[in-house]
């Protein structure tokens, strides 16, 4: 029809019906398939949560077992894929590596192109869940100039990731259960967030019937940006700058209010949450617990707390309903685990993967699904005549 409704940034536009995640931004409510995030964070684990998101129900013991074993079967990368890493510059950002290598999975698993073959689609999901931590850990090893460490299927998902990150052939890495638990919790709270930028990207690309690897690779690209998943890296960089500047948080709060300089408080504000971000509450509590347990006194944690206190009392932030979001404290936890800053968004991607898979599957399973194809309001020139180059 001729009438186009314009909603820049999609503030009020629903792109789909979905039964995966419920969000109430005014009340700070987040539920996966009906289960409150607080309860999942306290009682579930990441793989069980992934199953819940993808298949719609919590697994029984046999289903959970089958799922875990199914994922474990695929943790190795094809040996030829290791050679990709030789081609990347050593200082390549790991998000760039992640998105490239995930995209390249469809060159190795060409049977993934057949989207009508349900079994193949399921195997592609298992492959992604299993290989993303391996691909991620290899990107870190590459940056360190260390040999890749093969996955160890005796370990659980989070332990195995820490093992591949930090073990070397010269030194075994004893995975600290507190570290694995913290990682597990971070993955759960990142696992889905309805139609966010990267999930919408996965759906957008997937709506053309592109294969799962291509769709997820695109989602990783979307997540990388500092307004989305890249905020966790940007946030810690900002906290470091403030700490190095004598911890003068007021100066940075004032800077964030000034529209001229383009500076924003990273880890602050959210499109949907206008009261508080329930994920930030869970993460802050975990952060305090972990730092206390490790007897770590991270100055960045103090800077973050002070920044939060000052900003939350400031008229500018109150008026605009800006609160700390999921990325505000997550970086402090990653630091405590020894994860380097440029890997933070990669960890977000590992956490968000089940959500992307669930949405991709939901879309494909919807009868009468159509390609996503927004319209526009054209603002360019009206029709005009072509001018030859020598007359321009
Ligand atoms: N610092 C200073 N001002 C801000 C901030 C901030 N972090 N966030 C929003 N504002 C202001 C913004 O300038 C605007 O002011 P005005 O109405 O005077 O023009 C108002 O608040 C509304 O902001 P918006 O940009 O229209 O809001 P949005 O819904 O388009 O953007 C956001 C949401 C998350 C991109 C934004 O709050 C932001 O840039 N935050 C910093 C980056 C960040 O932490 N991102 C992670 C989001 S949570 C994890 C995830 O989902 O990826």
UniProtKB/TrEMBL annotation:
CDD domains: EcCS_like
GO cellular component assignments: cytoplasm
Keyword Acyltransferase applies: yes
Gene Ontology molecular function: citrate synthase activity
UniProt keyword annotations, A-Z: Acyltransferase, Transferase, Tricarboxylic acid cycle
Pathway the protein contributes to: Carbohydrate metabolism; tricarboxylic acid cycle; isocitrate from oxaloacetate: step 1/2
Gene3D superfamilies named in the record: 2.20.28.60, Citrate Synthase, domain 1, Cytochrome P450-Terp, domain 2
Gene Ontology terms: biological process: tricarboxylic acid cycle
Catalytic residues identified in the record: 270, 327
Catalytic activity of the protein: oxaloacetate + acetyl-CoA + H2O = citrate + CoA + H(+)
Flavoprotein keyword on record: no
PANTHER family membership: CITRATE SYNTHASE
The family this protein is said to belong to: Belongs to the citrate synthase family.
Protein name: Citrate synthase
Organism of origin: Rubripirellula obstinata
GN (gene name): gltA2
């Amino acid at each position: 029809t001729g009438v186009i409704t314009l909603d820049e940034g999609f503030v009020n536009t629903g792109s789909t019906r979905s039964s995966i995640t419920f969000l109430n931004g005014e009340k700070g409510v987040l539920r996966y398939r009906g289960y409150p995030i607080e309860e999942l964070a306290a009682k579930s684990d990441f793989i069980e949560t992934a199953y819940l998101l993808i298949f719609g129900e919590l697994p029984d013991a046999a289903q959970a077992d089958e799922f875990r074993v199914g994922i474990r079967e695929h943790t190795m990368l094809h040996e030829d894929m290791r050679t990709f890493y030789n081609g990347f510059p050593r200082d390549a950002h790991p998000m760039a590596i992640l998105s490239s290598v995930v995209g390249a999975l469809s060159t190795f698993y060409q049977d993934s192109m057949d989207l009508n073959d349900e079994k193949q689609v399921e195997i592609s999901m298992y492959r992604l869940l299993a290989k993303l931590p391996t691909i991620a850990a290899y990107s870190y090893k590459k940056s360190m100039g260390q040999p890749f460490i093969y996955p160890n299927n005796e370990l659980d998902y989070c332990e195995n990731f820490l093992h591949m990150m930090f073990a070397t052939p010269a030194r075994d890495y004893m995975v600290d259960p507190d570290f694995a638990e913290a990682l597990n919790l971070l993955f759960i709270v990142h696992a889905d967030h309805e139609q966010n930028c990267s999930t919408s990207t996965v759906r957008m690309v997937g709506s053309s019937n592109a294969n799962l690897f291509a769709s997820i690779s695109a989602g990783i690209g979307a997540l990388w940006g500092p307004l989305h998943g890249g905020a966790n890296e940007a946030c810690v960089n900002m906290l470091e700058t403030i700490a190095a500047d004598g911890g003068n948080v007021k100066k940075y709060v004032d800077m964030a209010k000034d529209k001229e300089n383009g500076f924003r408080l990273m880890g602050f504000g959210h499109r949907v949450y206008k009261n508080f971000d329930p994920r930030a509450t869970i993460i802050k509590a975990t952060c305090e617990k972990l730092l206390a347990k490790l007897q770590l006194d991270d100055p960045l944690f103090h800077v973050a707390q002070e920044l939060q206190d000052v900003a939350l009392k400031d008229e500018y932030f109150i008026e605009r309903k800006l609160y700390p979001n999921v990325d505000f404290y997550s970086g402090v936890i990653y630091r405590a685990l020894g994860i380097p800053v440029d890997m933070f968004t990669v960890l977000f991607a590992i956490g968000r993967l089940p959500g992307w898979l669930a949405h991709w599957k939901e879309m494909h399973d919807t009868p009468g699904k159509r390609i996503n194809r927004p319209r526009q309001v054209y603002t360019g020139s009206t029709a005009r005549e072509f001018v030859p180059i020598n007359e321009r």
